[in-house]
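Sat 14:20. Reprocessing the chain from the morning session after the first attempt stalled halfway. Input below, unchanged.
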Amino acid sequence: MSSTALSISLAQATRRARRQLTRPHVVLGLILLALLLYLVMTPLLIMIQTTITWQVEDARLARGTIPGEFTLFHWDRVFNSIISQTMLWTPLQNTLVTSIGISIFALTIGSLLAWLVVRTDLPGKAYISSIAIIPYMLPSWTISLAWIVVFKNQRVGGSIGFFEALTGISVPDWVSYGPVPIIITLSLHYYAFAFLLVSGALQSLDARLEESGEMLGASRWQVLRRITFPLVIPAILSAFILTFSRAMGSFGTPAFLGNPVRYYVLSTTLYNNIQSRLQADGFVLGLVLIAISIVTIYLNQRIIGVRKSYVTLTGKGFTSTPVKLRAFKYPILILIGLFLFVAVFAPLGFLGYQSLMLQKNSYALENLSLHFWVGASDPHVADGIAGILTDVQTWVATWNSVALSVVVGAITSILGILLGYAVVKGRGTWLSKLVEQIAFLPYLMPSIAFGAIYLGMFAQPLGPIPALYGTFWILVVVSVAKNLPYSSRSGTAAMLQVGGELEEAAVVGGAGWFTRFRRIIVPLTSSGLISGFLLTFITSMRELSLIILLVTPATRTLTTLNFRYAEQGYHQPGDATAMLLVVIILMCEWLVRRFRGAQIGKGLGA
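Finished this time. Tokens:
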């Protein structure tokens, strides 16, 4: 090839590369990639660096420490020292026991309820579906607070609970606190997650396979065991592993029901280390949590990958004849009603009742009062704590919660559409795949560990960005980053429904990218934008684990205010705060249903 031909070829290749790099979705993808690397990868690297260098506070733990110098002291201290059993191995064992127990019970309840709702002639299925997912929309620890109201005892809780007051029977410690109540209460929270996943899988199955089995003489039980169950195994295993991963990173419930009897899990041990200024040790525990979570998600992907070929789906929808429950129809309906009452309405009722109790130990009607709602400060009642609606700190916390949720919802909904645009328009390219994969990484990290990462990252200035710890904006940044997996997935789903013809016509008409995005993309994806905003709003309102390490008295939210009340033993104002939070969240859920048919299940990870 002559030098002239080579020059022409190089010039053509350069022009093609320049055209490729100046395409809107490529430019946007590169910008988003840089943002994701900063928000996701940089904090993780800083966290790892902290665990392998001496810190200023380490001077009280060892001699000759030089801050910033390399060391494996923290890893050795956590994994192989005289305190390793207390700091790592016992909490790890407790974490695995509770997480596995929660996953088994939640999956059993959720899968059975999903089958009854989707595959049988059970009456009132629409109402059951709506009520069944309420526990998952509420903070996970609301049921644990209700458990304390009912089953606490004077030996550990300092006062008797409703059960002992009603029956006179002293509740054993293992029923009041520890692994048993943690497993039960979180199972009643996460069963809704399994219900959403499994019911979605059951609705997507090709019903003709089941009908063919019945035509060949198989009984309903044989069809269920040999056809239906094998086809939904991927969804069941996925629900188990994802529930395990979420339960493992849960903080509020293990703190409320485990700390009083020194039953610590990894998340609460991490929190205690950070509070004790053992940040590097806490970060090691955070990396252990992240590693376990990554392994579980990897197993989930491997299992689904192996089983994928066994699932048969069609585009014709669900047409199978429902299983007739016959004489069992109404007894089953009554049992489901009782279960939903226990899982949904009773906890809220007990929290509301205790919030009206003036004195802790008296459940009599004459002890009911609105003091902890609207009462003035009285030194003879709860050390002078005023009613939450007359207390300035409640309104500050409410404002912080609402402001945080609004800002995070707005940012993540816009980021979700931008991520969806970059991923869909660049489908199949390395940039699209990389952006999509990095955006999913926060899902792999338990919330308490993710918050710990940002504590280490923004405790001091990082480049041009000042130290954000103690400000409102660190809560915004960490919440936006943590919600990226959901916003990117919803944005991608919305963009997949937008055809490219309209944008191509606008290009021919001379419209710039910003005009096309504003006049075409945004209107066509507005339903997804609104749903994404409201769903992220709900998620941020109920968040505790993610921000518990990052809040200060000035940035306290309703969830962290509730945690402080419970931690200090002020149950009535704590329960009133929880009820206020529940009312706000349920109002937002109503808005989700009102706006363009938005589905809460999509925002909850179903």
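The chain has a mean pLDDT of 83.
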